[in-house]
Amino acid sequence: MNTPQATPWRDGWFLPARHVPSPNHGPRPSGTAIDLAVVHSVSLPPGQYGGPEIEQLFTNQLDWQAHPYFQQIEGLEVSAHFLIRRDGEVVQFVSVHDRAWHAGRSSWQGRDNCNDYSIGIELEGLEHHAFEPAQYAALSDLLSALAHQWPALTHVAGHEHVAPGRKEDPGSAFDWTGLQQRLAWPDTAFPDGVLRTA
Question: Could you identify which of 12, 70, 96, 156 might form a hypothetical disulfide with 37, taking C-beta atoms 3.0 to 4.6 angstroms apart as the criterion?
């Protein structure tokens, strides 16, 4: 007799992740189905990896004077549900039940305000630069776990696809085809034109 696996979720928090709660979130509109994951890339300062600055930004603790770039984003209050570090570590900032502040002005398949119905997943990286195999493995596992818990989640797109002309992440180096192969999701789950055909 098979023993059911313990759920990896509690109150919208992914138990295998490291939890760093962010104050930057709000309620989702009542009755909203979560049906989209939005993949982003982030590094602070741009192109530098491994430091505490991303977590500090998402928790409103970043020292705006610590680097010249930070003064360009001073006062920004943002968050994502998840961050995947270069080594594949998953960090969670906002419960999936809540609305993280990750997509900004955005639209997907004719619906505006993607934050209302999406999950925001940041990959530590820079637009158009390669991501690490450990990040793809962690992203695939996380998306599978999300879709198992929230079956309406049947689409994944980049920030560039929900905010075209305004955002470019995760960028041209992101391996959408490899992600599809890992997930075994249909072509319709992905933005038009991102999958490479043999």
Answer: 156
